[in-house]
Design a protein that fits this description.
eight-stranded mixed sheet, alpha+beta, Aminopeptidase, single chain
Length: about 290
């Protein structure tokens, strides 16, 4: 193949690359905004418990959060969205995820990441741990429907943080018996900057809860859970609408949420005007020593 033919082939590949599309630009915006919100969680944990060693660093074009071994927040985010990732970059990521040098490493892999990232993850033995769907919609310009008459949606007041955490974790864990260590692990979300907490009330009973986090015009409609005994009363939808209305008040233009495929959360997203922007993977490397 001549030099001219090689040059033409490269130009065609570049033109067809998904990395140069508007969808890739939006994904970079979303993933980097999510990283900022998770960085605030780590900062909150560090304030509440300095011994936790919670911290965040920039590496591999993204952000790496350490919020304790075994925490779902301990992971790499927005990796490879700013260009190629090297083995040295991944060494920095893994050092932040496992400051003691051992344990599982976890990071999210977006389809718009540079191809060097999945190649290096494969070389190190990472495997697919979980699929996620990233949902988006424009923030509505007018108020949405209120909750059903029997329900009330309200911001969490000072002193209700523990109640909130137990309610949403009851929904996640499918039990009213929420272990104290789980509440402690998630407590920083209640005190993180630019995070708001909401409870759904049925009379005097808190039956569900949800989180709103925002930055740079992106509102994350996430962290919701309803106690198993109180489902199918419209609380999930009411919590979504309340947060979308609040996102408009905050000046956000784009709302985002992540779900697992095929869940009731997915159906709630569809009912409220969200559509799938892209899938992404949670990649995991089981407790192994670093490979460089």
């Amino acid at each position: 193949m001549s030099n001219d033919e090689l040059d033409l082939a490269r130009r065609v590949d570049a033109a067809q690359s998904i990395l140069a599309t508007a969808a890739a630009d939006e994904a970079r915006r979303l993933e980097q905004a999510l990283a900022v919100c998770n960085r605030r969680f780590a900062a909150s944990m560090a304030r509440l418990d300095p011994a936790s060693r919670a911290s965040a660093v920039d590496a591999a074009g993204g952000t790496v959060i350490f919020a304790g071994a075994g925490s779902p927040v301990t992971q790499g985010l927005a990796m490879g969205l700013r260009g190629p990732v090297t083995a040295a970059d991944l060494d920095l990521v893994e050092a932040q995820l496992c400051p003691d040098g051992s344990g599982a490493r976890q990071l999210e892999l977006c389809p718009f990441a540079d191809a060097t990232l999945p190649a290096e993850l494969a070389r190190r033995g990472y495997r697919v741990h979980e699929w996620q769907l990233v949902w988006t919609r424009r923030v509505p310009e007018t108020a949405l429907a209120p909750p059903p008459p029997e329900l009330r949606i309200a911001r969490v007041r000072p002193g209700e943080e523990e109640l909130f955490l137990r309610v949403i974790m009851s929904g996640f864990l499918e039990t009213e018996e929420v272990p104290e260590e789980v509440v402690a692990m998630m407590r920083p979300v209640a005190f993180a900057e630019q995070h708001e907490l909401y409870l759904a009330w049925l009379g005097d009973e808190a039956i569900g809860g949800a989180t709103l986090a925002w930055t740079d015009g992106v509102a994350f409609i996430s962290g919701s859970g309803v106690r198993p005994a109180f489902r199918r009363r419209g609380s999930q939808g009411a919590l979504i609408r309340a947060r979308l209305d609040r996102a408009r008040e905050l000046g956000c233009d784009l709302a985002c949420s992540n779900t697992l495929p095929g869940t009731s959360s997915r159906r709630n997203m569809e009912r409220h005007g969200f559509s799938v922007a892209y899938p992404k993977l949670v990649m995991l490397r089981d407790g192994a020593t670093r490979t460089s």
